[in-house]
């Protein structure tokens, strides 16, 4: 027999109304106005991520995002990754896959000049094993799977002549969460912690184009580590695709005016808190309130 408390939680789940994972609007898992924030074509964001300059031999590696990681977009990703809102996984995968389809021509051109252009690997930026356990799944790997599927079928496939497939090629050993760490501390915390996945033959990566996929790009420290490890195995990172990009401190956000969702319970407050949060992350201050919960790897 299950403990009473557990049973109670289950019953609560049946009767509690669902709310938008981004803005809190009633009766919908992800409301229309919030969905539209991730609708647009991907735009370049690598200049915001100071640590991407460590992408060694290819300083011009582009990064693309669908949205600014502020306001409801940031709330959405935090809810998805760390507050159990995996009911929006499918929608987020579809949003990033749609963005990837729009990038197909650019990716095709980048793949064509790689030594082994026959296949494009879509590689998720790795989370720690602890984070995967906490979330019950490797959520970023699910994003990568959707992107690979979209690129494999999508426009550009013919011209590219290559297959796209997702591969969990990297793993991340321990280390503390990046939460509350400044830019330099983030890089130090990561040093040497990204490795090739166990059992992966580095020969599989030799000359192969790789598109990295992640949820949010902040400093780029993790992506740069991934690129270094992949490059050592001979792979060529042609880009990084993320759901959202954190604007640097003080930078004007490109976020469209926040949608006013009907029945929104806490939209204004959440959006303001999230704007503050992005600054907290950059200054290394640990956010304290619930609405300011930072992202964890
Ligand atoms: Zn919403």
Automatic annotation (TrEMBL):
Leader sequence residues: 1-21
The entry's keywords: Signal
Compositional bias annotation for Basic and acidic residues: 274-283
Residue ranges, annotated region (Disordered): 250-297
Keyword Signal listed: yes
Biased composition (Pro residues): 250-261
InterPro entries: ComF/GntX_DNA_util-trans, PRTase-like, PRTase_dom
PANTHER family assigned: DNA UTILIZATION PROTEIN YHGH (PTHR47505:SF1)
Family, similarity comment: Belongs to the ComF/GntX family.
Protein name, UniProt field: Phosphoribosyltransferase domain-containing protein
Provenance organism: Cellulomonas soli
